[in-house]
Design a protein that fits this description.
CATH topology of the largest domain: Alpha/beta knot
Shape: elongated
Strand order of the largest sheet: 7-6-5-9-8-10
Structural class: alpha/beta
CATH superfamily of the largest domain: SPOUT methyltransferase, trefoil knot domain
Strand content: 15-25%
CATH architecture of the largest domain: 3-Layer(aba) Sandwich
Number of domains: 2
Length: 246
């Protein structure tokens, strides 16, 4: 089922952000406005299908009843398979993959995806259950990065980590209880960086699947960073070492 975005301002923001919209529906008899004119222009520029229907049709589509005569439908995100990621990066001496263990906030997912794409990660791996999926909120927060980053959605994250180990990756789990800091850990070469969910951290099975655990040094009174900020800091230590190796 398509994910729907309702309301003039929400649809306009989604178009400006480059979200993968494939259809826009307008209600009959809408009064012209600057927002509506820009929606129509951006839809035309992006070759997005635009149709005019009765307000009853939009009422039936709407989940909230606040569509203001404008509804956009997002195209389903094109997930990739883990096997394809492994095959494409089989010969890479340096390859970063980020795996998320039940990160449920789509904005955190989007922020991590943005950092991963900027850091040159080859893929993001997320579970199918109890995890945020790629939708409007994640795509918007990623600032379009999700259009350029391969995302694997797996039934079993632990099994996926095992497959990546078999492909020559070392699996590093982020934990505030780790003995070694990121500066001391071998976070380089072919690395999978695993981060746990908001407030819960790594699950027991995911932690047991890691080759080693790593933490960020903390000097302040707050014990840890938000998962998206922590992911960024850890990823860019990998980038730093890659830059030093070249």
């Amino acid at each position: 089922m398509d994910e729907l975005i309702e309301g003039r301002n929400a649809v306009l923001e989604a178009l400006r952000a480059g979200l993968p919209i494939h259809r826009i529906v307008l209600a009959e008899g809408l009064h012209s406005s600057d927002a509506l004119a820009e929606i129509q222009r951006l839809a035309d520029d992006g070759r997005i299908a635009l149709s005019v229907e009765s307000r009853r049709v939009l009422d039936e589509m709407s989940a909230r009843g606040a569509h203001q005569g404008v509804i956009a439908a997002l195209a389903a995100f094109d997930y990739t398979s883990l096997a394809d990621v492994v095959e494409r990066n089989r010969d890479e001496a340096w390859s970063l993959i980020v795996a998320l263990d039940h990160v449920t906030d789509p904005q955190n997912l989007g922020a991590i995806a943005r950092s991963a794409e900027v850091a040159g990660a080859h893929a993001l791996v997320i579970p199918e259950r109890r995890s945020a999926a790629v939708g409007a909120a994640a795509f918007k927060t990623s600032a379009g990065a999700l259009a350029h980053l391969e995302v694997v959605r797996t039934v079993n994250l632990v099994r996926a980590l095992g497959e990546l180990k078999d492909a020559g990756y070392w699996v590093a789990g982020a934990s505030e209880h780790a003995e070694q800091t990121v500066w001391e850990a071998p976070i380089e070469g072919r690395t999978v960086l695993v981060l746990g969910g908001e407030g819960t951290g790594l699950s027991r099975l995911a932690e047991e699947s890691c080759d080693y655990l790593v933490r960020l040094p903390v000097r302040g009174r707050t014990g840890s960073l938000n998962v998206a900020n922590a992911a960024t800091a850890l990823m860019f230590e990998w980038v730093r070492r890659l830059e030093s190796s070249e």
